[in-house]
Amino acid sequence: MTTFQDLGLSPAILRSLAALGFDKPTPIQSQAIPLLLQGHDLLGLAQTGTGKTAAFGLPLVQLLAADGAKPAPKTIRSLILAPTRELVNQIAANLRTYVRGTPLRINLVVGGASINVQCRNLERGTDILVATPGRLIDLVERQAVFLDSARFLVLDEADQMLDLGFIHALRRISKLVGQPRQTMLFS
User: Fold this and answer.
1) Is 148 within 8 Å of 178 (Cβ atoms)?
2) What gap in Å lies between CA 9 and CA 7, rounded to an integer?
3) Nearest by Cα to 132 from 96, 103, 170
4) Euclidean distance between CA atoms 25 and 18, whole angstroms
5) S-S: 166 plus which of 41, 100, 161, 175, CB 3.0-4.6 Å?
6) Please, are residues 106 and 84 in contact by the beta-carbon 8 Å criterion?
7) Can you list the domains of the chain with their CATH numbers?
8) Distance between CA 113 and CA 85 in Å, rounded?
9) How far is Cα 30 from Cα 23, in angstroms, rounded to an integer?
10) Average of pLDDT values for 62-91?
11) Beta bridge partners of 106
12) pTM of this prediction?
């Protein structure tokens, strides 16, 4: 039986997982986490409710916390795209539990919320930005955020984003995100 400790996660993350009551990784987590910690790009397929957010979120938090860098104003260090505001909110809530005890800053941007508030939140720089593609494009056009320093790009529910017609937005965003980068696609 695989444990989270077997996957190469840091003691700080293992403590967070224990506090959350997580003791055994799901299959997608067991397979994805070691590869992502090694810097590989990844396409992960799993059913809803199998822990995909932790599969990409835990290694992302560990890698960002380990390098100790701070984001410059209006820049991001990593980008997670999701098709709906509900999923963006859920991902951000999960990530906030994983970053406890670290200096990492998470922001989310979605349509249907005040763009002015979102612009202000982005001014200090962001370690992990969770966004819907449409609102992110709006913010890029306003020069409220710059994506070129992002080292990680995650597309969650990538198939759903394509089904919803976000292909042109995804292509545009992908060109704006920094290189080299680690890319993670999950569906």
Assistant:
1) yes
2) 6
3) 170
4) 12
5) 161
6) no
7) 5-186 (3.40.50.300)
8) 10
9) 12
10) 96
11) 128
12) 0.96
